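Supplementary Note 3. Input sequence used for the single-chain structure prediction.
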Amino acid sequence: MSTGPYLCRCDPPRVAEMKTSWTNKNPGRRFVRCPFYQEEQGCNFWMWYDPPMCERSSVVIPGLRRKIRNLEMEVSNLSEACNSKEGHESVENYVNNKEQIECVESCHESIPTMDGYPNARQTCECQRSGNIRCSYYVHTSAPNMTV
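The predicted structure, written as discrete structure tokens, is reproduced below.
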């Protein structure tokens, strides 16, 4: 890898442009190419600038990008909620509801069916630990209850 600019094979040669790949196989890996790559006046010069990535990076980077996209969508949703007429109340409700939905989903995955037990009792509470634990808790006793 040289430190100077790369020149393509056009006549006259042009300074190659640097791009970044965002494919799953080569996320974040840089390459250089002719500024007119795959065009009639270009020479189709193309080469990797960065060395190949390790296999772990090829798995971790796309996952982190998905996580960033999801967080950006959540920020956008919260911003819209802040700008709505309900204002801060709607944001607080959104956060509380989101926490409870997550808790309910994680809880109900592991609860057995209670059919056929007339005195069945069920408890369900937040499955998260530490500081992220919310106050979600349900205690029911209903005949023929299926959760």
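Residues 55-83 form the longest helix (29 residues). Confidence is low (pLDDT under 50) at residues 107-114, 141-147.
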